[in-house]
Automatic annotation (TrEMBL):
Topological relation to the membrane, as annotated: Multi-pass membrane protein
Protein's UniProt name: ABC transporter permease
SUPFAM superfamilies in UniProt: MetI-like (SSF161098)
Pfam families, per database record: BPD_transp_1
Keywords, in A-Z order: Cell membrane, Membrane, Transmembrane, Transmembrane helix, Transport
TM regions (residue ranges): 30-50, 80-105, 117-139, 145-167, 213-237, 249-269
UniProt domain ABC transmembrane type-1: residue ranges: 82-270
Predominant place of localization: membrane
Family to which the UniProt record says this protein belongs: Belongs to the binding-protein-dependent transport system permease family.
Subcellular location: Cell membrane
CDD domains: TM_PBP2
Amino acid sequence: MSVSLSANEAAEAPVEHQAKRYAGLTAETWFRILAPTVIGVLALLGWEAVVRINEIPPYLLPGPVSVFQTLIREWPSLSVSLLITLQITFAALFVAAALGLLLSVLFAQSRIIEMSLFPYAVILQVTPVVAIAPLIIIWVDDIRIALLICAWIVAFFPILSNTTLGLNSADHNLTDLFRLYRASRWQVLRYLRLPTAMPYFLAGLRISGGLALIGAIVAEFVAGTGGRASGLAYRILEAGYQLQIPKMFAALVLVSLTGIAIFLAMSLISHLCLRHWHESAMKERR
């Protein structure tokens, strides 16, 4: 006796394997959101409990409640500093992305140029920015441009190296096919190499987003600028000199949250650019 599915049963069969959704999100997505959230809440509660039970003074270790209250109270000054740091960070990230992409394309077109210039990019990457930041600040009159250069140095190499790797990772069989059809170098670059390098470029962009913020903070520490045109690093130094430890923690929280937000924004951009055609962002079909 043969067993067969009716037309309706066959149509409904794939639906049973689809992941159930709760409030529009799958169970796996909810787990990815809730698991780190629960861990973070438990850590904050434990931190607050340790501070209160041991009666640790705020100038040694403030609790999360004290840090949050300070963040609300000092928001007018911290928000201005945050905006200045963000301006430097995103300007450095934009310059790093544009210059890194252009140089990567140049390297892909000429092996001689790549072998001649890439070692200097490596030297620039492995040199600690904190060591060369004082020289840059001395040589450049405009402090904003000096901070931008320092942040750019940190953010530049991941985009350059990742994109260069992506451009050189084009399938050799497809490259031969393009040559067989007598495609120009521009056509090979546009229709083969650049699409192949797109995931690599976006991966480098995710890395460089956080590095640009780190570079901006380090450069601000070295510069030690004051007044209204001061970033978050100066607020941290200022709070440390005045033993305002809750304010220091509040500024550190802003730096961390900003770094997380930049990473999430870059991840979202990567997903939106790749979700319709690249395997890394497409949903698994079962």
